[in-house]
């Protein structure tokens, strides 16, 4: 949580920087002012709650509720006004307030139409059934959407990423959150950074892949908040996992992250190789601490993965996660994994 003094300092920076917008709408200083203002908006509720705690422990001089509403209103209005000033065309000198509101609504509608057009094309080309997002989620300087895909197979990962590559065209979008849905229940989810789609675009155009250990797709937890942004009612599957299944899910998420580091860190670089060894050490310690008697039959394969004796792919991990969520998982010798053994 940001401290009150840090928040006040950040807000003072905004006040000092905001005049640069009138000198040059798109200068680095102007962009920095907008970024900082969005960050101020993000932390506003936390700061308001902090003041409430202070008031609770001291004296109650007046009600903060009206002030809080005013603060929220004016920060949002200021952001809309700046956006309008920087990007709107044919601005009239009268009725500015209504112009800003109308322009903002048109912009939001156009952006959603662009998103839906990309998803329409993807649905036709892929034969997937798509659940569309209600709106864009804005969290400070991060902007993301949630997309549901019905009955996605774990081996469809590459097909999904390639099929959604055109999302790099949506300006200022940060992440795509993809949720697999089966019979109106969310099973698993992963996040695709938009920066990764630029790399995919480059690969499709040049057949060259720009490797980078950062900004790769990664698994995320399905939450009610994410599901709220889908335009169909989707539920979190309430599964009474046994102890071993819960632990295995946590381990699989960590193994996925570890495999990404192993894939993209340059082992020929002394610095990156040393960093990889530190990462492997940390993940090995963390994962082995999760292993107990309930995972005895899986401990050998987990150890082999940690020791890099087995190369496991994200498809392997997604496949197992899918099995667990569908309640088909039993921790016994009948469960088989397709793994490629390293030399």
Provide the descriptors you would attach to this structure in a database record.
single chain; 343 residues; alpha+beta; 3 domains; 7-stranded mixed beta sheet; two-stranded antiparallel ribbon; 13 helices; disordered C terminus
Explain what you see.
This protein has 343 residues and is of the alpha+beta class. It folds into 3 domains: 4-87; 111-238; 239-343. The chain contains 13 helices and 9 strands. The chain has helices spanning 4-17, 20-23, 28-42, 44-57, 65-87, 96-126, 157-163, 194-206, 224-228, 243-264, 270-288, 299-306, 314-325; strands spanning 129-131, 137-139, 142-150, 175-182, 185-193, 218-220, 235-236, 310-311, 340-341. Strands 1, 2, 3, 4, 5, 6 and 7 form a 7-stranded mixed beta sheet that branches. Helix 7 links the parallel strand 3 and strand 4. Helix 1 packs antiparallel against helix 3 (28-42), helix 5 crosses helix 6 and helix 10 packs antiparallel against helix 11 (270-288). It is globular. The two termini are 47 Å apart.
